[in-house]
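Take a sample.
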Amino acid sequence: MSSSRVELRLAACLLNISEARRKYIVENIAKAALLDKNGKKHPQVSVLNIFSDQDYNRSVILIAASVDKLGLAEDLVRHVPGCSVFLFGKADLPEKRSLVQRRKQLGWFTRRDFSALQPDLGAAPARRCGLTACFRAL
């Protein structure tokens, strides 16, 4: 008896949002992450978790998608104007830098002028808040 093995390579996306108190904003961003360029739901994209911290007014949305759907980043930029995407891990070609390496390279925690940053996709962040997304192929 032969068996076939289906391989599905996944990519994880962490959306960091400077908003938690207005739940509808966080939910609308999560919904936008599920849409393709035509506004239809991606069949291979799922929101796994939404964590919101009311005290710090921050939310994190964890999304999983097929590696074939890395166009998700472009779609997210299209549906959420002003967001910035920084790739890391296997999605960061050819360097494949880790999240820690990317943040150090960007000066993420020491930088004061975020407008000078060049994201992989989307607009340069005006400050260290708003919506940023990190994509990592697993």
